[in-house]
Amino acid sequence: MNRVYNFSAGPSQLPEEVLKEAAAEMLDCNGTGQSVMEMSHRSKAYEPIIAECEALVRELMNVPENYKVLFLQGGASTQFAMIPMNLKKKGKAAYVNTGVWSKKAIAEAKKYLDVDVIASSDDKNFCYIPKVEKVTGDYDYVHITLNNTIMGTHWEYLPDTGDIPLVTDASSCILSEPLDVSKFGVIYAGAQKNLAPAGVTLVIIREDLIPETMPVENAPTMLQYKIHAEGGSMYNTPPCYTIYMMGKVLKWIKANGGAEGMAKRNYEKAEYLYNYLDNSDYYHATAEKGSRSIMNVPFLTKETDPDAASAINKKFVAAAAAEGLVNLAGHRLVGGMRASIYNAMDLEGVKKLVAFMDKFAAENK
Ligand SMILES: *Cc1c(COP(=O)(O)O)cnc(C)c1O
């Protein structure tokens, strides 16, 4: 069997140990004679699985007592609507526009309240994180996209929002490094980048932000945080197997040093790659220093003619795949290539990528 190094932006590579364990338990989990896929979510066999997953989220992220940890469905994209529907009070929210996912969150929020875009990096194709001074005003919350998966940028500071709850989409950087949960009102993340296979969305929400009665009319039951909080993420059938997988990934993170361990591993990988890019006369990173993601690294070759660049990018992606380095095509909005190097990617994979890049550069200069 030949496993590839998968640089996909998501769904992405999972730790091999986790996959092996899941495979070993496929037909019989913990002596139950069943696969987790077949278990009732209300059974004695399943209860500890979801309970342990929540306990690990709390432990690894140091989640304060007054926050709920929810396992929801519908992806981060559903949170784009749930946030404004549930957090609306006065009727206005502030958003920072740092690219595609921010824009989608803004578009969805506008259906439920007034949106002020208080800062944007639109002027330079979102290659940096704007400087946001202290946020004041009549806002129900302030929303940022912590890591911009497509643009390869990341917030290296958090804006000071005073008493206004800070809400963040952390889909592509959750548990990649320590995060002070108490600085946020809500943190949400689709699991398929750093936590699990697709199908579950982690939501960490300060309890006082969960409304007793929904501020918007006719809100679907499934889009009310209160329903999920009271039901312990079991109002309806949760994505049982995905939560089980998340529990395994979290155990792997714990065994590898927790959030601090991930940060060490991730900065080492990212620095190795950026260092190569910054010293190359053939490639360059697109994200500005001071705003760079340690998870998603978009880069271009020095070819500036659009047709020639497109041809060389295709050649790069195909040649890399032939060497077991897959899913390196860049997003069309940035062009070039993108290496997503989430938690499960090891330094070895990044070293292999850099060695390949160097060979490709020499052959195509
Ligand atoms: C992948 C991604 C999303 C979309 O998540 P879904 O779970 O597919 O809805 C949203 N925001 C960010 C930052 C992402 O990386």
Q: What can you tell me about this protein's structure?
A:
It is a single chain. With 365 residues, the chain is of the alpha/beta class. 34% of the residues lie in helices and 16% in strands. Helix 3 packs across helix 4. The longest helix is centred in the C-terminal third of the chain and has 21 residues. The protein is globular, with a radius of gyration of 21 Å. Pyridoxal-5'-phosphate (PLP) binds next to helix 3.
What are the SSEs and their pairings?
Blueprint: E1 5-6, H1 16-24, H2 47-61, E2 67-72, H3 75-87, E3 92-97, H4 100-109, E4 114-120, E5 142-145, E6 147-148, E7 153-154, E8 166-169, E9 186-190, E10 201-206, H5 225-230, H6 240-255, H7 258-278, E11 283-285, E12 296-301, H8 306-322, E13 325-326, E14 337-340, H9 347-364
Parallel strand pairs: 1-13, 3-4, 3-5, 5-8, 8-9
Antiparallel strand pairs: 2-10, 6-7, 9-10, 11-12, 12-14
Helix pairs in contact: 1-6, 2-6, 3-4, 6-7, 7-9, 8-9
The structure holds pyridoxal-5'-phosphate (PLP).
Pyridoxal-5'-phosphate (PLP) is lined by residues 10, 75-77, 101, 145, 149, 169, 171-172, 190.
Low-confidence stretches: none
Shape: globular
Instruction: List the secondary-structure elements in sequence, H or E.
Output: EHHEHEHEEEEEEEHHHEEHEEH
Q: Name the average pLDDT.
A: 97
Annotation, overall tally of beta strands: 14
| Helical amount | 25-40%
Number of helices: 9
Structural class: alpha/beta
Radius of gyration: 21 Å
User: What's the arrangement of strands in the largest beta sheet?
Assistant: 2-10-9-8-5-3-4
Report strand %.
Answer: 15-25%
Give the end-to-end Cα distance, rounded to a whole number of Å.
34 Å
